[in-house]
Description:
The complex is a heterodimer of chains A (266) and B (332). Chain A has 266 residues and is an all-alpha fold. Chain A has one domain. Helix content of chain A is 73%, strand content 0%. Chain A has 12 helices and no strands. The model of chain A has no long low-confidence stretch (mean pLDDT 87). With 332 residues, chain B is an alpha/beta fold. Chain B folds into 2 domains: 3-247, P-loop containing nucleotide triphosphate hydrolases (Rossmann fold); 253-313. Helix content of chain B is 35%, strand content 30%. Chain B has helices at residues 25-31, 64-71, 93-96, 116-127, 131-145, 160-172, 190-207, 218-224, 242-250, 293-303, 316-327, and strands at residues 3-18, 34-49, 53-57, 79-84, 100-104, 178-182, 210-214, 227-232, 235-240, 253-259, 271-277, 280-285, 306-313. In chain B, β6, α7 and β7 (210-214) form a beta-alpha-beta unit. Chain A binds chain B through residues 3-4, 6-8, 10-11, 14-15, 18-19, 79, 86-88, 90-91, 93-98, 259, 262-263, 265-266, and chain B through 14, 65, 69, 72-76, 93-95, 97-98, 100, 102, 104, 106-109, 111-114, 118-119, 121-122, 125-128, 154, 182-183.
Amino acid sequence: MNKSYFGIFKMEFKGELQYRSKAISGMLTQLFWGLLQIYLYTAFLNETPVDGFSISQMATYIWLGQAFYVMRYITVPKEIGTSIVNGNVSYNFVRPLDLYNNWFCENLGQKIASTLLRFPLIIILALFLPGNLRMYGPVSVTALLLTILGVILGTCISVAISMFTVYITFKTLSEKGASGIVSTISGLLGGMIIPLPLMPQSLQNVINYLPFRFISDLPFRIYIGNVGISEGLIFLSIGLAWLIVLIILGKLLLKSALKKTVIQGG
Amino acid sequence: MASIIDFTDICKTFKVPLRAKGKFSMFKNFFARKYKTIEALKNITFKVDEGDIVGYIGPNGAGKSTTIKIMSGILTPTSGNCVINGSVPWKNRREFVKNIGVVFGQRSQLWWDVPVIDSFELLRDIYKIPREEFDKTLELLNDALNLDDLLNRPLRQLSLGQKMKCELAGSLLHHPKILFLDEPTIGLDAITKLAVRDFIKFINKKWNTTIILTTHDMNDIEALTNKIILIGKGQILYQGSFENIKNQYSSSKTIVVEFAKDYDDIHLDGYETISHEKRFATLKNLPSKQFHPKEFVNEITRSYDIVDFQVTSLSVDEVLAKLYKEYEIVER
């Protein structure tokens, strides 16, 4: 990768580190949501237990989800969105850079920085919670390594999907609408609203192969042992294939959008 | 000298949705939208020589920004040819933009949350500027613009004037051959305006940078440019020196006269009485009449007893306003 793209990545990273109170309030929200979700789904699981998905696994799954919330959340990256709507994007055109790569790195930098700021504390707290609420360690060292690999892949897929929201913003000039559509779809199909193991089996058979579940569902399930090592490896390669497809598709769409772009005003 | 910018017959049309009026118009618009085409630029042709400072002026909505956007490779024209620095801006965009710098006065190219120097470092990476050259350029810009106290502060903490200085520096780090400035002095106070002007002149001298400037501040034009291009309703109306235009209009004088007593009617050959109230009257010389102070005093004292008089010529802004009116290019 080119040095300038790394520079952009670094810049977003630094920018993100400047807002401490944002990170703290984010963490509090995630703790609250984690507890809420665990109470909710514990009630479900007590009524009708699901094979191969125990309450402790479910709690761990949810805590991981909260710890890596930023990485999983699909949205139009804030500055990119506003720059498209208000026309500041014109500066991106006068740089000797590929726009897609430029934005990809920006988004990735933001996501990694804010994730690194938040996840350690949430995980440490979750590990020491009492009873059913607590999070457990990984099933094995191999599973942990595979989880880390999966989280990295998932972050990239998450960014690649976010790039579609950038495309929609170009088309509609509404960043909120773009985020709304894509994040709802990916949230539901990626297990961020309801953990995927709790969904009907027939639905899972389809969802398991869609790109959204590779964002976080897969690595988390490898972590809790719900997906085995060899099965996990197969799925990780499917995820990698999806990443490549998404990037190619995203680049093509952005190119077509740029051809028709008109920057208005002043 | 070879021209660095060569614009031939550039046209640009936009398609804008036409809004139907009346009942249920929202639904009509939603289902069947009609479009009309707007000609933003019509056969724009001009040349700019290397090292020139060109003022690109015209009323709001004349097509100035559209032209700048075409020149900087952001927009593709509908038809026509344009060669800048030996290449076509919208083809091979990434190569082309290495040699241009752009400042849009109402937008920002630097990163909001981080110290300015970090933004500059990133620009260094983006343009692949060698460290040594970068340090030298930065020192030069620093000296000329007094950036010392600003570089280590995040952009969001800077005032508008400080920001503009940083934007200018940022656009010049890679030593571009052509600099596009879209309203660089908008909203700046008098001192900063002067500093920015001095700096633009300085860079032009030092590096022989070609500068294209759009502005509504006529003092910018007067102080900086050696050529202006006047555009209105998408067409070029005048190109040449600003002095020419100014001289054409500055022969028109307004004279306020104070009389020793009340006169019923003021009439002077060759002059038009614009207003008359008690002992004061405002006169204006007719286009056919050349104004000479001595002659004027002789003529007026022949028929009237006067106490004092004051002569004013048109300000640059008034000259331009007159010009716009004459060409009927003001937006209605």
